[in-house]
Automatic annotation (TrEMBL):
Transmembrane segments: none annotated. It comes from Aphanomyces stellatus. The gene is Aste57867_13732. It comes from the Eukaryota. Residues 386-504, 510-627 form the Fibronectin type-III domain. This is Aste57867_13732 protein. The keyword Chloroplast does not apply. The keyword Acetylation does not apply. It holds the Pfam family fn3.
Length: 836
């Protein structure tokens, strides 16, 4: 990098004499002082030299005004900083002798004579100058050969106008500048530098002419035989240039050079050069259309040149008048009026006309003037550097907090509303998806209390922050900001670097320790907890409650099949979103199917479609007090406060539409199976006392379902105390003589199985493995026609207090943990009709 920097510097110095006089004065101070003094090492690489300058207190923010640094050291550091800024845009560029001729010509627009808008300054400004169109104006300027000889040194290839020459003074009385140059800001800053004066450029051979430092150029042909072409300027090692953005690149021309008759006027935007083969008068100027671009160039050139520095300070001055005349007349383009600032009041007040104007017309002019003033003010508002995300914590799943320069400071007492418009677009968005916008007023913006270095050490001001909401997770965006003050809207900043929002994932941890609230519901407790701070970018679909029970010293057992909780490794149950209640702060839900007299602990985690987040702390131990009058109740599908089982394979699948497993559609009535009198009957939330010991029928001899019941015969090794509320479902195959195909439906329901084909133990075992809460064995072959006796189950008789299978091996049935009962054929038919 050091060698390349030295090469650029040598070329910069060597070619300074080849530039036109208006430029040569600016680059004279770019020369390297051979004796830089004390500890300055000229052979150090640029990055090392720049780091050493910063270690000595140098920064771009104080480069122009720091009186505490040694002048020699300050000049050296300014030179290093200049080269450091120059190098990135000049890697691989040629010497200035190659110029920009390699760039292909671009289209030169022509103003339309019969279009009234093209004949006005406002129309030309908005149609061509703001769009960076190289354009031939309809205007024609007259100039005599005597004027050229008296006001310019025609013996030189490049000669500035001798405005103070006595011989030139008479000709200046009738000299006019091009219309679109009339609002030149440079005339309000300085009129002494040659670059602010017209320049006669004589080119016997085709040569490229341009204006430096982001200035626009106007060329007026001084010969009838001149031709001209316009091309994009490519950076060269002799000057700093800001490249044009892609939207400014015009359509390539197929014609190349065009005729440029005497007196015709060509507008060339900044960033472009014109190749001419004859004499022409060049104007370099700045107005609202390139105001901020000029300041960008001068900010770099001011490192080396005091004139550029003074210009930069003048253009930055808050008192600079950036207004522009909308209806330019010959009185504005006359040389004396053009050079004079401030202008006479009669020239600045456009509403004062000599002729009488109707009131309606005056009102329209006033409206147009207001719109014009707003446009100009917006173009001259300061432009921030690209916004950025200052830290990773500013990037979220659906929002990003951006930081950008606080570039606007309203005057004390100014109540004009202002803020910033943030524009963003996804990098993978289609062409039909336009950018999104949001206005952030001053009230919602957050200003830093101290100066920031987030934008480099050449900005020592404060930063400002604003949050953009409504973004998509795991998506890359670019952002830009622009200032608005009242009705005036400024220019967009450059696009930010790509910022990718965070990916969606599992929710964050449930905070704190859930609180246990006992309820009157049998075998249930209610938990209350705080929701997670982060939902993982997806809607919370439920909460997972994990539990453990049976404390023995310091060991706890996880929920298992005996407790009728989930059989999976984490032994948890899911409370669906519609099963919990949420107040302003807390979430609460009930956990049922608990045993009396057993201590429990619980923990809670949130669940979305990506999975389960971290669990909360364990609750304090709690115990459901035993009751001498009531026994445990197991709730299945169809029962009030039934818990949905947690299925990790479903919960952790991002492609799943729902992380909470949904149960199948109801397959029949909700039944109540109880050891109380060994009955199977329809479940009723409020039980009505029976008026008859037998089922009842209506007038049409149809069974009144709520009155139906059936006596059942429990297995000899079935749990002795049970209360089950759930839907019955017929297994597939009905005899359970093979793997159960509808295991998902059987889970958390009462399995209905035909008797026959294989031992009863095998049927009950397969139902338990499928997750059934209980089993109804149907005597479809009517073996129990005489009752629950030895004919129904050999070796067993209900009258002796035995269950069916009393002669079976107890060790065989020890693996069965769910109730299983036998139903006679007549009762089975009624139940099967209901299931159908």
């Amino acid at each position: 990098m050091r060698v390349l920097g030295a090469t650029i510097w040598a070329l910069h110095a060597a070619h300074a004499a080849d530039m036109d006089p208006s430029i040569a004065g600016w680059t004279a101070e770019v020369q390297v002082d051979a004796s830089l003094g004390f500890d300055i090492d000229e052979n150090a690489p640029l990055d090392v030299a720049l780091a050493k300058c910063k270690a000595n207190g140098y920064s771009r923010g104080n480069a122009f005004l720091d009186a505490t640094m040694h002048p020699t050291l300050l000049d050296h550091c300014n030179k290093i900083q200049y080269l450091e800024l120059l190098l990135p845009s000049h890697q691989g560029t040629a010497s200035p002798s190659d110029d920009a001729a390699a760039s292909p010509p671009v289209r030169i627009h022509a103003s339309v004579d019969d279009d009234p808008a093209e004949q006005t300054y406002q129309g030309f400004f908005q149609r061509h100058m703001l769009r960076t169109h190289a354009t031939i104006s309809t205007e024609t300027l007259s100039m005599s050969d005597e004027f050229l000889q008296k006001c310019f040194d025609v013996t030189k290839a490049v000669s500035p106008m001798e405005v103070h020459s006595p011989e030139c003074q008479p000709h200046l009385e009738t000299f006019h500048v091009p219309t679109f140059v009339a609002n030149d800001y440079m005339q309000r800053v300085s009129t002494e530098d040659s670059i602010t004066r017209p320049m006669l450029v004589q080119a016997p051979q085709p040569s490229t002419v341009h204006c430096r430092y982001g200035l626009h150029m106007s060329l007026v042909s001084a010969s009838s035989d001149t031709s001209v072409s316009v091309s994009v300027r490519t950076p060269t090692v002799d000057e700093y240039m800001i490249p044009l953005s892609a939207i400014d690149d015009p359509t390539p021309s197929l014609n190349g050079a065009i005729s440029f008759p005497r007196g015709h006027v060509l507008f060339v935007p900044n960033g472009f050069g014109a190749t001419i083969d004859g004499p022409a008068i060049r104007f370099c100027f700045a107005d609202a259309s390139n105001f901020n671009r000029v300041k960008q160039h001068l900010r770099v050139e001011a490192l080396l040149d005091t004139t550029a520095r003074s210009w930069l300070f003048a253009l930055r001055d808050a008192t600079l008048d950036t207004s522009m005349v909308r209806r330019v007349t010959p009185s504005h383009t006359a040389w004396r009026a053009f050079r004079r600032w401030p202008k006479p009041q009669k020239l600045t007040k456009e509403s004062n006309a000599d002729e009488a104007i109707p009131r309606r017309e005056r009102y329209k002019i006033w409206q147009d003037d207001r719109k014009w003033d707003g446009l100009v003010q917006g173009l001259t508002l300061p432009v921030s550097r690209p916004p950025l995300a200052a830290s990773p914590s500013d990037i979220h799943r659906t929002s990003v907090t951006l930081t950008w320069q606080d570039i606007f400071h309203p005057r004390k007492g100014d109540i004009t509303p202002y803020g910033y418009e943030v524009t963003w677009q996804a990098e993978d968005a289609s062409a039909l998806d336009g950018p999104m916008k949001r206005n952030l007023s001053a009230a919602v913006l957050v200003r830093s209390g101290l100066p920031t270095t987030a934008f480099g050490d050449d900005f020592d001001g404060k930063a400002i922050q604003g949050t953009v909401l409504g973004l998509a997770p795991n998506t890359s965006y670019t952002f830009s900001v622009r200032l608005f003050v009242g009705d005036a809207i400024g220019l967009h900043s450059e696009r930010s670097q790509s910022i990718r929002t965070n990916s969606c994932g599992e929710p964050s941890v449930v905070r704190g320790q859930p609180e246990i609230v006992k309820t009157d519901d049998l075998n249930c407790i209610r938990l209350t907890w705080l929701p997670p701070v982060d939902d993982g970018g997806r809607v919370i679909q439920g909460y997972v409650v994990a539990g453990r029970y049976g404390r023995d010293v310091l060991q706890w057992r996880e929920f298992n099949a005996t407790m009728q909780f989930d059989h999976l490794a984490n032994k948890a149950v899911v409370l669906a979103k519609d099963s919990v209640t949420t107040d302003i702060v807390n979430v609460s839900g009930a956990v049922c199917n608990l045993r009396q007299g057993v201590p429990y602990q619980f923990q809670v985690a949130a669940l979305n479609e990506f999975g389960v987040g971290p669990f909360s702390l364990w609750t304090d131990p709690t115990t459901i007090d035993p009751s001498a009058h009531q026994i445990d109740v197991m709730r299945g599908v169809g029962a009030p406060r039934f818990h949905r089982q947690y299925d990790r394979t479903c919960a952790t699948a991002p492609s799943s539409t729902s992380a909470v497993p949904t149960t199948s559609k109801p397959t029949g009535p909700v039944m109540f199976l109880s050891d109380k009198q060994d009955l199977l009957e329809p479940y009723q939330l409020i039980s009505i006392p029976r008026t008859s010991p037998t089922p009842e029928y209506d007038a049409s001899k149809k069974l009144i379902w709520t009155s139906w019941f059936a006596n059942v015969w429990p297995g000899h090794y079935s749990p002795k105390a049970y209360n089950i509320i759930a839907e019955p479902v017929l297994v597939d195959p009905p005899y359970a003589d093979g793997p159960i195909a509808n295991a998902a439906d059987v889970r958390d329901r009462i399995a209905v199985i035909y008797r026959g084909k294989l031992p009863l133990f095998n049927k009950v075992w397969r139902a338990q493995e499928a997750g059934a809460l209980g089993v109804l064995l149907l005597d479809v072959d009517n073996i129990c026609a005489t009752g629950f006796d030895y004919h129904c189950s050999p070796g067993s008789n209900v009258m002796h207090g035995e269950g069916f299978g009393a002669q079976d091996d107890a060790a065989t049935w020890s693996a069965i943990q769910i109730p299983h009962v036998l139903l006679r054929q007549d009762d089975a038919r009624v139940l099967l009709d209901r299931l159908a």
